[in-house]
Amino acid sequence: MDEFKHIKNIIFDLGAVIIPIDFEKTFCAFSNLSGIPVDEIKTRYLNATLFVDFETGLIGNFAFLQGLRLLLNMDQTISDHELRNAWNALLLDIPEERINRILELTDTYRIFILSNTNPIHIKAVNQILYDFTGSPTLEEVVEHAFYSYDMGMIKPDPNIYTTALAQFGLIADETFFLDDNADNIAGAQSVGIHTALVTEQHSLFEILKHA
Question: Which of 20, 125, 119, 128 is nearest to 65 (CA)?
Answer without folding.
Answer: 119
